[in-house]
Automatic annotation (TrEMBL):
<dbReference type="GO" id="GO:0016706">
    <property type="term" value="F:2-oxoglutarate-dependent dioxygenase activity"/>
</dbReference>
<dbReference type="Pfam" id="PF13621">
    <property type="entry name" value="Cupin_8"/>
</dbReference>
<feature type="domain" description="JmjC">
    <location>
        <begin position="140"/>
        <end position="299"/>
    </location>
</feature>
<keyword id="KW-0560">Oxidoreductase</keyword>
<protein>
    <recommendedName>
        <fullName>2-oxoglutarate and iron-dependent oxygenase JMJD4</fullName>
    </recommendedName>
</protein>
<dbReference type="GO" id="GO:0045905">
    <property type="term" value="P:positive regulation of translational termination"/>
</dbReference>
<dbReference type="GO" id="GO:0005737">
    <property type="term" value="C:cytoplasm"/>
</dbReference>
<comment type="similarity">
    <text>Belongs to the JMJD6 family.</text>
</comment>
<dbReference type="GO" id="GO:0043565">
    <property type="term" value="F:sequence-specific DNA binding"/>
</dbReference>
<keyword id="KW-0408">Iron</keyword>
<dbReference type="GO" id="GO:0046872">
    <property type="term" value="F:metal ion binding"/>
</dbReference>
<dbReference type="GO" id="GO:0140096">
    <property type="term" value="F:catalytic activity, acting on a protein"/>
</dbReference>
<dbReference type="InterPro" id="IPR041667">
    <property type="entry name" value="Cupin_8"/>
</dbReference>
<keyword id="KW-0479">Metal-binding</keyword>
<dbReference type="InterPro" id="IPR003347">
    <property type="entry name" value="JmjC_dom"/>
</dbReference>
<dbReference type="InterPro" id="IPR050910">
    <property type="entry name" value="JMJD6_ArgDemeth/LysHydrox"/>
</dbReference>
<dbReference type="GO" id="GO:0005634">
    <property type="term" value="C:nucleus"/>
</dbReference>
Amino acid sequence: MDREMFHSCCSLVKMPSRRSWLQYQPSHFVDYMERATAYSKFFRNYLLPNQPCMFSKKFTEDWNCRKHWVTEEGKPNFQRLLQEFDDTPVPVANCNAKEYNANPKQIMPFKEFIQYWREYIQNGHSSPKGCLYLKDWHMQRMFPEHNAYKTPVYFSSDWLNEYWDTIEVDDYRFVYMGPKGSWTPFHADVFRSYSWSANICGRKKWLLYPPGQEEFLRDCHGNLAYDVTATVLKDKGQFPHFEEACQPLEIIQEAGEIIFVPSGWHHQVYNLEDTISINHNWLNGCNLDIMWQFLQEELSSVQKEIEEWRDTMDTWHQHCQVIMKSCTGIDYVEFASFLKTIANNRISFLTSCPGSGSASSCQSCLSETLSALGPHHSAFDLQRVVHVLENMLSNEDFKRLEPSALSFKPDDLLQEIREAVHTIV
């Protein structure tokens, strides 16, 4: 990102209003990237406007997983996969069962899942065990030495995994493996993050709805639809607003292709063949506003649920934060810590020589990423942190947090950011 693009983008990033989202009607076509293009083009045309696109198989052809996990016929290479993962415990969902608008999961040895998968294929893609789907497996975290793939530069400004890598608690990088017929129910991604998904082999069908359209896909109790293709949605008594929803954007993703799913786009996904995919959830300065709005809406929902206890509990507001974190995985304190970590990394990058001294492999990788994106990109990131942090400081629920809950003083961080940005702009 250069100086001109920095100033342009800082003025362009604005949170779309809920009304404009509800009025949005998607095209039934999606842009297709046949070959490598400038990062700035992806940034301007897809990240900032929050629009989906597809990347051709050329972007994954050098990945080790595409060379080793797939047979010459384009099928999953079970023998090679067993050699690599054998008894590794993996999370497996049952697509035939419903549990709170998702599929219940169990942990099983990888080789047991592969045995099931082989039998499922031999039995005409059916089994008395149901349709099992290995999903949300943190393969990269468990086997970093495999170098199974390399994140494309377009998705490298990834604050979500940067933060969780820094605190060494979790990550949002996953492997999915499923037989023909496995699927994922209707949902939006964690924290309303972006996602990218690369098919290592097999084909998927995606049904995507732009932000706001999910409001028409709720039942009379306000619950989100589990399956947007189910005939029950045509029952006006149960789904009174279904007819007001736009038609979904339907995309067929071929082997090797990567799909970019924008922030807050609800989607439902089917494996049309035996399929393996790599999936990342990620966010950055372009959709930070959307995450912050999502957290405010989640807290508001919790507050409405336990409103009757408000006057009987001195710690009611703190309890709301605890409940929100148990439901979403984050509360206001951790969100503030998240912003501080992202800001500190960029301040350090702008005020010191990247890569100097000893550094962990995680820090080294981050330094390489920030260097590749350039100092103006870090300045843009810091401006986005300032924007949201200032918004948080004026938020009544954030003001109610115990000062001791935060590990830093927001005003001090804002001053540090402004000084760092001033050196580059």
